[in-house]
Amino acid sequence: METKTGKLLVLLIEDDPDQVFLYKTKFNLEGLDTLTALKGADGIKLAREKKPNLVLLDVLLDDIDGIEVLRQLKQNKETSGLLVILFTNLSTRDVEKQGKKLGAFSVISKTDYTPGELVKKVKKILEQSR
Amino acid sequence: MNTFALSGLLISVPSFVLGIFTIIRGQKKLHYIWSLFCFSVALWGFGVYKIASIQNAETAITWWKIAYIGVIFIPILFTHFTYEFLDLSKKLLIKIIYPISFLLLYVNIFTDLFINKVRFIFGQFYYISEPTIIYSFFVLLFLILAIYSHIKLLEAYKTTQGIKKEQIKYIFISTFVGFIGGSFAFLPVYKIDLYPIFNIAIAVSPFIVAYAILRHRLMDIRIVVRKVFIHLIAALFAYVIFYFLIWFYTKVFGDVLSPAGYIAGIVIAPLFVFSFHAISNKLKKFTNEYFFTSLYNYQETISNLTEELNYLIDLDKIINLIVDTIKKTMSLDKAGVLIADGQKKPAHYKIAKVIGFNEKNGISLVKDGFLTEYLSKTQKPLVKEELSIILKDSENKKEKQNLLLLYKYMNHIEASLCLPLVSNKKLIGMIVLGEKISKAPYTKEDLELLDTLSKQAGIALENAILYKQVSDFNKTLKSKVDFQTKEIMEKAQKMQKLANMRSEFLDIASHQLRTPVSVINGTLSMMIDGDFKEMPEEEKQKFMRNVYIKGIKLKEIIEDILSASEMDTGTLSLPSAKESDISIIVKKATDSKRGEAKTHKISLVLKKSKSKLPKIKINEQYFEHAILNLIDNAIKYTKKGKVEIKTVLEDNNIIVSVKDNGIGIPKKELPKLFSKFSRAKNAKEMYADGSGLGLFIVKQVAKAHKGDAWAESEEGKGSIFYIKLPVLLEKNIQKK
Predict the structure, then answer these.
(1) pLDDT tens, B458-488?
(2) Neighbours of B2 (CB within 10 A)
(3) Which of B373, B560, B597, B660 could form a disulfide with B693 if both were Cys (CB 3.0 to 4.6 A apart)?
């Protein structure tokens, strides 16, 4: 789903405001429209309303954890088709297993990607899935 | 003498003898009822004997009345006996029929309403004829009670087991035969002139009962009967020989007092003595074999016991065997075995098993003393009755006194006989016996048997005691091994738990480390990408500040993780716990945070405990760390105001509390606050980089000291964090 300006829309669900600031700044610089949510519930709501092209989902969240957010997104017909990338600092082995099972497109470790690399990865995924 | 007279004699004599036996031995109601029954039957028999030869109608009526004194009571006594014998409780019937019987007795003796006419029959004797109404009523009563009692016996026979069943059987057969036979005697009264020959059947009854008494311990009176039996047969033998000789002398020598007779007597007399002795012995053997299978036979008792003792190694079983064997073979009322407890000085002899003794009388514990000394010295059975003889013979005054005391002591504990149990010339215990049930003294034979028996028992017991010691040792060993195995298992489980916790810990610790690193690296990579060139200054500043804060955070997290990993999570041990004064540590921690508090414009207030705190065993470093974490939190989450640190002693617990008037904690979040990497929602808004380990560390430290940590809070108003440490800690601290 593209925005009116034709840009791709990314939803970032992340509880650390510093990281939100970091990634949002970079994404905007790289021409991606970015929606952010500090809480899981808000993220689910935004995903349903705005139908972003991609959801970057942190696992450790304040209210409901990212895995639960993923489950709810996939269970809901409106959002089940969304591309969801789990984006975490947890050791990815366990998360990957759970995330893949629930239908996450990919699981990415935060420290493995600089913001620039992340943007490239996101763009690549979006192009492939078009 | 006609057949009717003979039947009377045959009825009366055995019944009378049986009645006498029973009354001699009589202890219980049962015995007396039975004796009365026997006497009633005997009276009938005697009456018959007389009537059979009376040729005068009036005298006949008198004797009929006398005979019926017995007959009237036969049915009621028999029914009463049946009730008593079967332990039946409804005795209403008996209470009604006794008065009726006595009424009949009265009518019989004092009026002619019972028996008033006789007629001469079979050309031999006068028999009752034309029964009166009362007589017929009695006959009916007689038959009803006889049938009813036999039905009761039959019912009981079906439901009873063992020896009682046998006894019931014999009682039933005996009385059934007797009553059937006896009932025929009513027939001539009703003009059915059948010669009352079946009367003889009554005579069979006492013999059947006597057999049951001997063989099946009916009414527990066999001991007396046995003696009487032997004497009776012996007397019969002498009697038969006596009359045979008289008959023989008159036949051969013409006169008993002839000279040839005297000469023959010289040969006959020793022959008689010799044969009498032989017959008497045969009789004893016979009675033992056929009537007293459970009474002892020397050789057999000893060899059986020896054989059984050889098989047994279990102390309790041996003791049971000894006590049971002696008690049974000797027919004793009391028997017991005392075993020495060698570990105590002086040795105590404790009950291993007793039957019949009253333990309160002192048998339960015999201490080493004159008795045991005497037994070890003589190593022979000590008989109480013999003591009095020894007493008289003794010249030593002191010994005399001791023997007297011993006599009194044995009297007191109701012992008639003490047998030493000796092994390797050492007294290992004693057998204490009471009186024989028959009250007869211990015979020489008994003592010989008991002596041999106790020697065998002594050896067997010593073996068993040694075996028990070995097996007890084995048991202790096994329980020790089991205990250690369990300990090792527990340790292994603890290690596994620790390993799991470590891996979980590493997972989360790495997450907490990666988070600031990813922000720092991300920001730097953007700088490298040149993203900052055209960025507004304000935004740049924000990036720089974020990086700086994350750097500090990184340092703090590393410190926390180091502390937390030092504590073995969950089962944190206290390698260097020592007696410490909590208030000093709290003061030290507070003081070190004063600077930080000042920059945050927060006043730090330390409130000391009113009472002096007891020293408790803690690890000072960990505890200080925990307090520091709490003060840190309080300062961080309080915008302005004050933080109050308080120490109190409450119910043997020292409680340190840190109270702030900061942002508070939502109620929902309180329970999970102390878990790893938990931060309250609103905590993040304020200070986003908590390691999530601070309160976890606090909790772990408290738990390691067998204490606890918790928080009370109201959102927006502030929080109070508590650490509670129990005072009596020494015993509780887990050892590493």
Answers:
(1) 888 888 888 888 888 888 899 999 999 999 9
(2) 14
(3) B560
Which one of B515, B557, B693 would you mutate to disrupt binding with A, by most A Cβ within 10 Å of its Cβ? Answer: B515
ipTM score of complex = 0.89
Task: Name the amino acid, one letter, at B535.
Answer: M
- Given an 8 Å threshold on Cβ–Cβ distance, is A26 in contact with B517? no
Sheet holding B708-714, edge to edge: B602-607, B641-650, B653-660, B718-726, B708-714
What's the gap in Å between the CA of A42 and the closest CA on chain B?
14
Q: Where do we find the tokens 């009388």?
A: B361
Contact A60 B511 (CB under 8 A): yes
d(CA B607, CA B559): 28
CA distance B627 to B439: 88
With H, G, I as helix, E, B as strand and everything else as coil, classify residue B82. helix
Ramachandran category for residue B718: left, alpha or beta (phi over 0 → left; psi -120 to 50 → alpha): left
Of A22, A60, A117, the CB nearest to B523: A22
Per the confidence metrics, is the pTM higher than 0.80? no
Yes or no, beta carbons of A16 and B525 under 8 Å apart: no
Residue in B526, B681, B688 nearest the CB of A26 = B526
CA-to-CA dists, residue B414 to B292, B378, B400, B435, B636, angstroms: 27, 22, 21, 8, 89
Q: What does the alpha-carbon distance between residue B131 and residue B418 come to, in Å, rounded to a whole number?
A: 67
Q: How far is the C-alpha of B294 from the C-alpha of B185, rounded, in Å?
A: 41
The DSSP output letter for B612 is P
